[in-house]
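DM from R.C. (forwarded with permission)

"hey, sorry to bug you on a friday — could you get me a structure for this? deadline for the figure draft is monday and I only need the backbone to look sensible"
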Amino acid sequence: MHADNLLHRVESAVMPAMKTLFVGLASFTVISLCPSWLLAAERITAAYTSIAAAYAPFWVAKDKGIFDKYNFDARLIYMRGTVPTLAALANSELDFVQSGASPFIPFAAKGGDVVLLGCLANKVIDYVLVAHPSITRIEQLRGKPIGISRVGDQTHHYIREILKRSGISLKEVRLVQTGLQPERVAALRQGLTLASILNRPNNLPLEQEGYKRLLDIEDLKLPAGVRCLITTRKIMKAKPAMVDNFVMAWLESVRYILTQKRETKQVIAKYTRNTDDVHLEEAWNTLATQTEIPPYASVSQLQGQANMMAEDQPDLARFDAKVMVDNSVIKKLEDSGWTKKLFR
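My reply, with the result:
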């Protein structure tokens, strides 16, 4: 009887603890086996700054589930112009931007928090100089109106360099600030300008109408940070794992673009609202043939770009491009073998 009472007391004391242990183990097992899609996705906002195929890595990552794979609830937004993009980045309204580096150089030179995590190219690519059918040589642009986005932006700098290499100064032409690419195309068709600089394949409809391609700008080998992934050091410090994962998603999207041509062209068609297969083929080719892997941001090329800009922005003469570059995530992925495995 005493033994039975003792056993009953032991069971009364031990069993609740054992039940708690089993419940705890069961809960741990459920959490351990829980797929990532059941965990709360990390909300991020990413911006692209032009409706051009160069920005396809964000589009593909969104539409093909790559952001989902890395547990991102990604909101993509199109931001027209440098000023609103810089303001949104500075106010922590954006987590990432894909853009050329040049609009961000003056901001960084003034102490602004902006950093390049990597660039898919380190020279000026994608752009072509297109002119009215009556103009067949760059030298004929003297005295003519040329369309740019706005004074001080990258189209302004690129036009200046193109003209300089043909012995023409900006004083010998008339620059017209027509706006972004759709507006520059419209200005050409309306005769408001006789030449302009456009991203491929935006030039192709004009060329089919008889406009002349005077130059592919990559032939000039102008230094630049192009198709760059941009964030802030504040975000890198606060959310290093998130930044690592986003870079991985970005690179996996690039890999998808390089290997899934048909599907990529469909995504480009959706975002550019262009279903012409000739144009889409040209768009895909610019991505497939002009992408540097691993996509390090070149400090020396960025410095060259800043020096080029300093010709009309003297404050940039003392700019040190190193303050704007952080290749640490790209290097970590390369050193680990992850990038090589992805792109093998």
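R.C.: lifesaver. Residues 1 and 7 are 10 Å apart (CA to CA).
me: no worries. Residues 1-37 have pLDDT under 50 and may be disordered.
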